[in-house]
C-alpha cells in the first residue's frame, strides 16, 4: 500500500483544464519532486492534496484511506508554502505551536483570554512548548523562537515554516516551491538540508518546484508535469537520460536538448545520413530527433560531420556553449564543449557538426518517445 | 454538503436586512416627496403615494429654496477649496519627500500637529478675524481656512515617498528645473492620489455645516447644508412633502456622483482613510 | 596642483548644489508654511490665549482672568451635561458602528456576486448630505406621523417621542450616527481584509484550524489589528465631533438632553458671543483630541514588527 496515491485527478477552472487525470503513487519514506513549468497545474495538485481545493473527479488515498470526505484540518498533511505563510503577529515559537494547539487543545481552551483560565490546559501547553523546543533544536532555530517573522531573514523564516510543518509528525509532507524566495547561494545550501531532514524524519514528501536542477538533485523520483498531464515519473537519471516524452526531454537539461525535425521512412528515421531503425511501427512522416548538447561535437576542419557555421559562443568557465546552424537544413544546433575542445573556435567560422547517432532519441509526431533498435547503433553514421 | 448553501442563505439574509435598514431613509424620502400633506398624515407606512404629488412638492421646493444658488455655491466653494489645497500641498509634499533641506523635520512636526486640529478648534479666532476684516458672508471666508490641508500634505507625502528617486534623477539629467519636475513629472504621476483626495475633500466640504453656519448669514452665500437648514427653519411646520423634495434635490448630486464613480469613491475613501 | 583645485571646485559645487536645493525646497514649502501659520498655528495660540480672557465679541475691551474660565467650566452644569452627553453618544456610536462595520465587511467579503451591490448600499450614507438625511430621520422619528412609530403601533407598542423626549433623544441621535458611519467603517475593514494574504488562510486550514471561528482568531482578527486601531480612533474622534444632527434636529434640547460639546461651544461662542469662555471650552475639546491621539500612538507602539 502506497503512502499516498492519486487516481485520475481532474480539475478545471472556467472551462480551462488544469489537471487532466493525474495518477501518482508516493511510497513510504519517498521524496518525490513534482516539476514543471509555471502554470502546469502542479500547485493546484498540491492544494487539492492538502484539501484546500477540491478536484472535479478522481480519488486521493493516504495509506489506503480515502481522503475526499476529510477536511484539510483533519488530513494530517503538512504543507510548506512558497511565501512561508507565517503568522506575522506570532513569534516563531508561537507559529510552530499552532498546529499542536489546534490538535491538542479543545475549542474553548483555544479561546483568547478565557482559554487560559480553563483547567487542564496548562499541562497541554507545557507539552506543546516542549515539542516546539525539540523541533527548534532539530532545525537549529532555538535562538529565534521569540522573534516575529518580520525580524527574521528569508532563510530563517523558511526554517520556521519547515518546523511548523514538521512539528506534528504529519503522514505526508507537501512543499510548494519552498526555496524560490531564497537567494541563489542559500538555495543550494537549503536543498541539502531539506534532503537531510527528510532522510531523518522519513515522512513521504511531495516537493513542487519549477527548477529542474532542484528536482533532479533532491528527489528519489521526479514527476514531470506539463499542461496538466503527468508525463513521466522516474528516477532523476532516467528522466534525464531516457525521457519518455519530447516535453520531458525539453524541460530537463541545461542547455536545452537539440530537437531536429526528421522523417520516418519504412521503419527508419532519416536525417542527413543518420538512419537509426525504429523498434516500433511508425507511419511514414515527420518525427523529431533529440540530441543533448553534450553529444554534439564540432570539427574545426569541417572534415567530419554536417556542414554548419558557429553563430555565437558562450564561455561559462567549465564549459563552452556553441550555437551553430546547419547549412543544409537551416536547423540550429547547440553544442556543449569542454574549454579545450573550443580553443580553436571563433564565432562565425565554418565547422563540421558531429551528432553522435547512438545518443539520438526519436520522438513521434505526438511527442511520445520511439525506441531505436539496438542494431541501429552499429550502423555507420554517415554515408 | 448541505451546510454551505445554508450558510450562504443566512449571510445573504443578514446582509439584505441590514441593507434594508440603510436604505429605509432613502425609500421614505422618495416616497414622502411624492405625497400630499393629508397623505403624509394618514398613511405613513404605505410607500406609494395615493395621489402622485411629486411635481407640486418639487415646485414648492424650487420656489422656496434658491436651489441653483445653493448648488452653485456648493460647487464654487468645494472647487476653490480643492484647487488651493492641491496647489499648496503638492509642492510642499514633494519638497518634504524628495529634497534635502534643514526645515524638513520641523515641517513634519507641523504637519502632524496640524492633523490634530479640526476647524472646530480654530473657528473662534478665525471668526473674530474675519469679522474684523468685514469678510463674513463671502466666498473668501468660506474658502480661506481650508486652503491649507495638512491631510493633503500628509497623503501626498506618503505617495511621493513611494515614487522612485531615479525618476527625478532622470528628469534632472534631462535638464528640468525643480519646478519643472513638480509640474511635468510629479503632478502627472500623482493622479491616483489627487483623485482620491478630491473625493475626500469634496465629500467633507460639501457636507460641512459648522463653518458655513458661523461665517454666512445670507442666503446668497449659503452652501447646500445651510440652505436646507434655512428652508426647514422658514417652513417651520410639517410640510414634509416639500421638505423631502428639497432634501432629495440637495442629496442627489453627490449620491449621483458616487453611483457613477463608486469604485473611485471607495478607493478614495480607503486610500485617504487608511493613510490618515 | 590642478587636482587640488579640482577637488576644491567639486566641494564648492556640491555645497552650492546643496544650498540651491535648500532654497528650492523653501520656495516650494513656503505657501504651505504661511497658510499653516495663518490658519492653524496662530488660531490655536489665539484660542489658548483667549481662554484666559473675558473677551466678548462686540465689546472693545477685554482683560485677563487667569483660570477663571476653567474654574467656571467645572461648575457649569450645561458644560458638564454636554461632556456627559458627548461621552454617552460616543460610547454608543463608536463601538456599535465598529462592530457592525466589521460584521458587514466580513459578510460582504464572503459574498460572491452581490458583493458590489451591498458595498454600494452600505456606503451610500457616507456619500449623502448628512444634514439632508437628518431631516429624513426627523420625519421617520416623528412621534405622530413618522413611519417608525406607525410600525411600532402595528405591533401594539406605543412608540416614544424619539427626538422630542429627553429620555430618548440621545439614543435617537446615536441611531442616526451609527447609520451614518457603519458604511465608512465597513469600507476600511474591507480594505484591511483584502490585504490579508490568502496563503495565511490556507496555512490555517492545513494547521488544523477547522472552524471559521478558529481561522478568525488565528488570522483575520490579528491581521486586522492596524486597521482596527485606525477605525477605533477615527470613529471615536468623529463621534466626539458630532454637531450637524444636533444642530439640525434638536438644538441641544429638549432640556439640554442632547447638548454635545461642539454644540455648546457653538452656542457660547457664536450665539452668545462669549468668545473667551467658548475658547476655554475649545481648549478642553482640543485636549480630548490630543489624549485620543496619544492613546493611539501608545497602542501602535506596543504592536511591533508587522512586516
UniProtKB/TrEMBL annotation, chain A:
Annotated protein name in UniProt: ABC transporter ATP-binding protein
One Gene Ontology MF term: ABC-type transporter activity
Family: Belongs to the ABC transporter superfamily.
Listed Gene3D superfamilies: 2.40.50.100, Nucleic acid-binding proteins (2.40.50.140), P-loop containing nucleotide triphosphate hydrolases (3.40.50.300)
Membrane topology listed for this record: Peripheral membrane protein
GO cellular component term, pick one: ATP-binding cassette (ABC) transporter complex, substrate-binding subunit-containing
Compartment(s): Cell inner membrane
Key words, A-Z: ATP-binding, Nucleotide-binding, Transport
Membrane-spanning ranges: none
Top-level taxon: Bacteria
Organism: Mesorhizobium jarvisii
Principal subcellular localization: membrane
Pfam families linked to this entry: ABC_tran, TOBE_2
UniProt xrefs under InterPro entries: AAA+_ATPase, ABC_transporter-like_ATP-bd, ABC_transporter-like_CS, ABC_transpr_MalK/UgpC-like, Mo/tungstate-bd_C_term_dom, NA-bd_OB-fold, P-loop_NTPase, Transp-assoc_OB_typ2
Automatic annotation (TrEMBL), chain B:
Regions annotated as coiled coil: none
Keyword Transmembrane annotated: yes
One BP term from GO: transmembrane transport
SUPFAM superfamilies hit by this protein: MetI-like
Main localisation: membrane
Transmembrane annotation, as ranges: 12-33, 70-94, 106-130, 142-160, 181-206, 240-261
Cited InterPro entries: MetI-like, MetI-like_sf
GO CC annotations, alphabetized: plasma membrane
Keywords from the named record: Cell membrane, Membrane, Transmembrane, Transmembrane helix, Transport
Subcellular location: Cell membrane
Keyword Metal-binding: no
Lipid bilayer topology: Multi-pass membrane protein
Highest taxon, organism lineage: Bacteria
Pfam families named in the record: BPD_transp_1 (PF00528)
Stored PANTHER family: ABC TRANSPORTER PERMEASE PROTEIN MG189-RELATED, ABC TRANSPORTER PERMEASE PROTEIN MG189-RELATED-RELATED
Assigned protein family: Belongs to the binding-protein-dependent transport system permease family.
Protein name according to UniProt: Carbohydrate ABC transporter permease
Native source organism of the sequence: Mesorhizobium jarvisii
Automatic annotation (TrEMBL), chain C:
Bilayer-crossing regions: 25-52, 88-108, 120-140, 169-196, 216-240, 271-295
PROSITE patterns with a match to the protein in the record: ABC_TM1 (PS50928)
Keywords per UniProt: Cell membrane, Membrane, Transmembrane, Transmembrane helix, Transport
Membrane topology: Multi-pass membrane protein
Compartments it resides in: Cell membrane
Main location: membrane
UniProt keyword Transcription, yes or no: no
One Pfam assignment: BPD_transp_1
Stored InterPro entries: ABC_transporter_permease, MetI-like, MetI-like_sf
Gene Ontology CC annotations of this record: plasma membrane
Superkingdom, taxonomy of origin: Bacteria
One GO BP annotation of this record: transmembrane transport
Protein family (similarity comment): Belongs to the binding-protein-dependent transport system permease family.
Name of the protein: Sugar ABC transporter permease
Species annotation: Mesorhizobium jarvisii
Amino acid at each position: 500500500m502506497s503512502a499516498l496515491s492519486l487516481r485520475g485527478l481532474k480539475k478545471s477552472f472556467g472551462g480551462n483544464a488544469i489537471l487532466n487525470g493525474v495518477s501518482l503513487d508516493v511510497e513510504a519514506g519517498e521524496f518525490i519532486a513534482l516539476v514543471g513549468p509555471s502554470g502546469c497545474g502542479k500547485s493546484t495538485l498540491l492544494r487539492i492534496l492538502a484539501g484546500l481545493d477540491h478536484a472535479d473527479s478522481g480519488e486521493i488515498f493516504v495509506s489506503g484511506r480515502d481522503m475526499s470526505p476529510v477536511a484539510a484540518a483533519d488530513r494530517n498533511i503538512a504543507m510548506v508554502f512558497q511565501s512561508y505563510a507565517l503568522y506575522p503577529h506570532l513569534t516563531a515559537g508561537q507559529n510552530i505551536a499552532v498546529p499542536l494547539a489546534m490538535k491538542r487543545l479543545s475549542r474553548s481552551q483555544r479561546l483568547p483570554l478565557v482559554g487560559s483560565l480553563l483547567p487542564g490546559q496548562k499541562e497541554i501547553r507545557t507539552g506543546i512548548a516542549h515539542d516546539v523546543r525539540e523541533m527548534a533544536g532539530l532545525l537549529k532555530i532555538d535562538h529565534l523562537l521569540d522573534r516575529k517573522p518580520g525580524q527574521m531573514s528569508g532563510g530563517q523564516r523558511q526554517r520556521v515554516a519547515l518546523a511548523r510543518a514538521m512539528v506534528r509528525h504529519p503522514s505526508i509532507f507537501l512543499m510548494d516551491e519552498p526555496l524560490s524566495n531564497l537567494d541563489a547561494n542559500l538555495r543550494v545550501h537549503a536543498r541539502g538540508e531539506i534532503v537531510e531532514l527528510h532522510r531523518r524524519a522519513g515522512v513521504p514528501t511531495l516537493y513542487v518546484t519549477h527548477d529542474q536542477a532542484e528536482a533532479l538533485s533532491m528527489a528519489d523520483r521526479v514527476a514531470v508535469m506539463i499542461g496538466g498531464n503527468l508525463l513521466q515519473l522516474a528516477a532523476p537519471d532516467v528522466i534525464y537520460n531516457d525521457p519518455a516524452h519530447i516535453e520531458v526531454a525539453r524541460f530537463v537539461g541545461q542547455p536545452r536538448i537539440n530537437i531536429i525535425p526528421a522523417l520516418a521512412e519504412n521503419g527508419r528515421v532519416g536525417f542527413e545520413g543518420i538512419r537509426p531503425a525504429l523498434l516500433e511501427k511508425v507511419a511514414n512522416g515527420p518525427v523529431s530527433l533529440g540530441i543533448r548538447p553534450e553529444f554534439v561535437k564540432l570539427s574545426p576542419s569541417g572534415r567530419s560531420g554536417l556542414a554548419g557555421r558557429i553563430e555565437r559562443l558562450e564561455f561559462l568557465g567549465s564549459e563552452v556553449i556553441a550555437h551553430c546552424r546547419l547549412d543544409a537544413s537551416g536547423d540550429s544546433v547547440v553544442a556543449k564543449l569542454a574549454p579545450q575542445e573550443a580553443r580553436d573556435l571563433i564565432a562565425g567560422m565554418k565547422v563540421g557538426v558531429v551528432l553522435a547517432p547512438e545518443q539520438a532519441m526519436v520522438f513521434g509526431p505526438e511527442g511520445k518517445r520511439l525506441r531505436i533498435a539496438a542494431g541501429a547503433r552499429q550502423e555507420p553514421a554517415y554515408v | 454538503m448541505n451546510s454551505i448553501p445554508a450558510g450562504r442563505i443566512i449571510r445573504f439574509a443578514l446582509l439584505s436586512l441590514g441593507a434594508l435598514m440603510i436604505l429605509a431613509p432613502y425609500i421614505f424620502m422618495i416616497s414622502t416627496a411624492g405625497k400630499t400633506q393629508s397623505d403624509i398624515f394618514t398613511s405613513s407606512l404605505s410607500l406609494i403615494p395615493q395621489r402622485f404629488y411629486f411635481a407640486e412638492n418639487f415646485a414648492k421646493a424650487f420656489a422656496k429654496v434658491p436651489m441653483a444658488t445653493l448648488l452653485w455655491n456648493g460647487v464654487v466653494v468645494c472647487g476653490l477649496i480643492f484647487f488651493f489645497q492641491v496647489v499648496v500641498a503638492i509642492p510642499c509634499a514633494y519638497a518634504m519627500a524628495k529634497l534635502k533641506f534643514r526645515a524638513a523635520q520641523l515641517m513634519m512636526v507641523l504637519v502632524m500637529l496640524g492633523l490634530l486640529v479640526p476647524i472646530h478648534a480654530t473657528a473662534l479666532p478665525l471668526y473674530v478675524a474675519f469679522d474684523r476684516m468685514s469678510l463674513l458672508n463671502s466666498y473668501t471666508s468660506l474658502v480661506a481656512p481650508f486652503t491649507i490641508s495638512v491631510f493633503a500634505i500628509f497623503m501626498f507625502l506618503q505617495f511621493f515617498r513611494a515614487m522612485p528617486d531615479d525618476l527625478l534623477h532622470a528628469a534632472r539629467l534631462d535638464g528640468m528645473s525643480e519646478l519643472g519636475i513638480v509640474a511635468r513629472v510629479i503632478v502627472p504621476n500623482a493622479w491616483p492620489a489627487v483623485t482620491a483626495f478630491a473625493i475626500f475633500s469634496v465629500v467633507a466640504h460639501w457636507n460641512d455645516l459648522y463653518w458655513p453656519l458661523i461665517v454666512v448669514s445670507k442666503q446668497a452665500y449659503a452652501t447646500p447644508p445651510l440652505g436646507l437648514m434655512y428652508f426647514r427653519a422658514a417652513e417651520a411646520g410639517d410640510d414634509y412633502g416639500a421638505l423631502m423634495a428639497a432634501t432629495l434635490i440637495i442629496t442627489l448630486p453627490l449620491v449621483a456622483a458616487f453611483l457613477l464613480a463608486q469604485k473611485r469613491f471607495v478607493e478614495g475613501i480607503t486610500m485617504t482613510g487608511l493613510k490618515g | 596642483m590642478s587636482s587640488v583645485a579640482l577637488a576644491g571646485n567639486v566641494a564648492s559645487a556640491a555645497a552650492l548644489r546643496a544650498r540651491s536645493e535648500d532654497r528650492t525646497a523653501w520656495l516650494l514649502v513656503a505657501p504651505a508654511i504661511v497658510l499653516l501659520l495663518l490658519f492653524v498655528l496662530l488660531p490655536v495660540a489665539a484660542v489658548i490665549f483667549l481662554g484666559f480672557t473675558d473677551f466678548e465679541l462686540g465689546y472693545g475691551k477685554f482683560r485677563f482672568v487667569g483660570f477663571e474660565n476653567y474654574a467656571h467650566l467645572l461648575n457649569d452644569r450645561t458644560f458638564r451635561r454636554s461632556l456627559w452627553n458627548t461621552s454617552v453618544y460616543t460610547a454608543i456610536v463608536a463601538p456599535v458602528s465598529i462592530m457592525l462595520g466589521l460584521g458587514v465587511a466580513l459578510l460582504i467579503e464572503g459574498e460572491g456576486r452581490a458583493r458590489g451591490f451591498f458595498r454600494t448600499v452600505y456606503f451610500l450614507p457616507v456619500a449623502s448630505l448628512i444634514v439632508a438625511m437628518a431631516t429624513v430621520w426627523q420625519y421617520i422619528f416623528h412621534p405622530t406621523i413618522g413611519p417608525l412609530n406607525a410600525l411600532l403601533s402595528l405591533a401594539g407598542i406605543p412608540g416614544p417621542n424619539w427626538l422630542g423626549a429627553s429620555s430618548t433623544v440621545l439614543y435617537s441621535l446615536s441611531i442616526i450616527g451609527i447609520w451614518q458611519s457603519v458604511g465608512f467603517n465597513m469600507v476600511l475593514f474591507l480594505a484591511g481584509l483584502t490585504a490579508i494574504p490568502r496563503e495565511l488562510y490556507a496555512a490555517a486550514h492545513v494547521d488544523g484550524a477547522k472552524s471559521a471561528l478558529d481561522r478568525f482568531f488565528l488570522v483575520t482578527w490579528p491581521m486586522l489589528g492596524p486597521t482596527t486601531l485606525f477605525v477605533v480612533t477615527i470613529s471615536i474622534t468623529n463621534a466626539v465631533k458630532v454637531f450637524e444632527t444636533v444642530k439640525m434636529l434638536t438644538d441641544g434640547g429638549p432640556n439640554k438632553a442632547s447638548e454635545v460639546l461642539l454644540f455648546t461651544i457653538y452656542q457660547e461662542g457664536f450665539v452668545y458671543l462669549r468668545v473667551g469662555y467658548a475658547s476655554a471650552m475649545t481648549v478642553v475639546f482640543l485636549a480630548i483630541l490630543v489624549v485620543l491621539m496619544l492613546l493611539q500612538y501608545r497602542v501602535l507602539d506596543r504592536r511591533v514588527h508587522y512586516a
